[in-house]
Amino acid sequence: MPSTAHIRCGDDLRDLLPQAGWAGDYLPIADPVCVGAVSDGDLMAYLGQRARVVALHAGVDAQEARLRLGREYMALNSLGKYDRVLLWFEHDLWDQAVLIRVLSLLAGRAPLEGRLFLMPADGRRAFAHLPAEELAGLEPVALGALQLEAGAEAWAAFADPDPTALDRLSRRALPLPHLAPALRRHLQDLPWRNDGLALTERLLLRAVAEGAAGLPAALAALQKADPVFQVTDLIVKEVAQRLSAGPQRLIGRDAPWQLTERGRLVLAGEARHRPPPRFQGGVMVGPDPAWWWDRRAAGVHGTL
């Protein structure tokens, strides 16, 4: 039997894959790449940057986060010992962001030629939700230089402080089946030109306006509304905290969640949101952003 490594953006398939007959070593990459700042270039600097992001996002110790990320990314250096490497990434933005991070690190590694395979996602369901017999019957799709180069190009654009290259890339026919829609969804979380809200922020405000009074209900509403970005509870919590901070808050601080008067005006298009500082991939967002999502042009534009 060929030796196999399974790369996945988390631990959700660790027990399911052996049950479905997929033997091999399980190598998770638990870096939530679609959350917070990222950068291209030196991996050690990247790990330090991401450890700080993960510590704030998940409420864990920064050193603990750095050690885990280091172990997971360094495991990619051992892939040459396997006969095949299976990449388990779905259509969702979370998965696709980790996929291009991984492909950017594997591009050009000669020992992996002919050994890399992408597991086919159907664009609707998570692998963890598939019946065991369907999971067992999936046919790996070989990845070649074209797909690896596309992943590396996408990562460089994802990490760039200027999002126009990523915008152009997301309009092309790409050799990775679910990448372009995920990249466009990522760009839609830049502030929108018409009201200053990111798409995830708008979906959360709408859910609260429609009665989602806390995290569980808001999470369910956002997951139902947005199949391309299946947000997590931590993402919803972080966005809610962002929108409930400061004197111009859009969501009240106290439970149950309710829109403030300003939140109602912004959601109705009668006032403009000035976003607090944050990063969207490599792009800095702030009260007066340099980059916007223009819904009419369905693309990125510079300062108003």
Short account of what is shown:
The protein has 304 residues and is of the alpha/beta class.
Could you walk me through the main structural features you see in this protein, from its secondary elements to its overall organization?
The protein has 304 residues and is of the alpha/beta class. It folds into two domains: 4-165, Rossmann fold, CATH 3.40.50; 188-302, Arc Repressor Mutant, subunit A (Orthogonal Bundle), CATH 1.10.10. The protein is 40% helix and 11% strand. The chain has twelve helices and nine strands. The chain has helices at residues 16-19, 43-58, 62-74, 93-106, 132-136, 145-158, 164-170, 179-187, 199-209, 215-225, 233-243, 261-267, and strands spanning 4-8, 25-28, 84-88, 116-118, 141-142, 278-280, 283-285, 291-294, 299-302. The strands form three sheets. The protein has a five-stranded mixed β-sheet with strand order 2-1-3-4-5, with no helix packed on it. It has a two-stranded antiparallel ribbon with strand order 6-7. A two-stranded antiparallel sheet has the order 8-9. A hairpin with a 2-residue loop joins strand 6 (278-280) and strand 7. It starts with a strand and ends with a strand. The mean pLDDT is 96.
CATH first level of the largest domain: Alpha Beta
Mean pLDDT: 96
Number of helices: 12
CATH topology of the largest domain: Rossmann fold
Q: Note the overall shape.
A: globular
Radius of gyration: 20 Å
Count of folded domains: 2
Structural class: alpha/beta
Strand order, largest beta sheet: 2-1-3-4-5
**Percent of residues in helical segments?**
40-55%
Going by CATH, the architecture of the largest domain would be 3-Layer(aba) Sandwich
Beta strand %: 5-15%
Give the total of beta strands.
Answer: 9
Taking the sheet with the most strands, its summary is:
5 strands, mixed
- Secondary-structure element series: EHEHHEHEHEHHHHHHHEEEE
Terminus-to-terminus distance: 59 Å
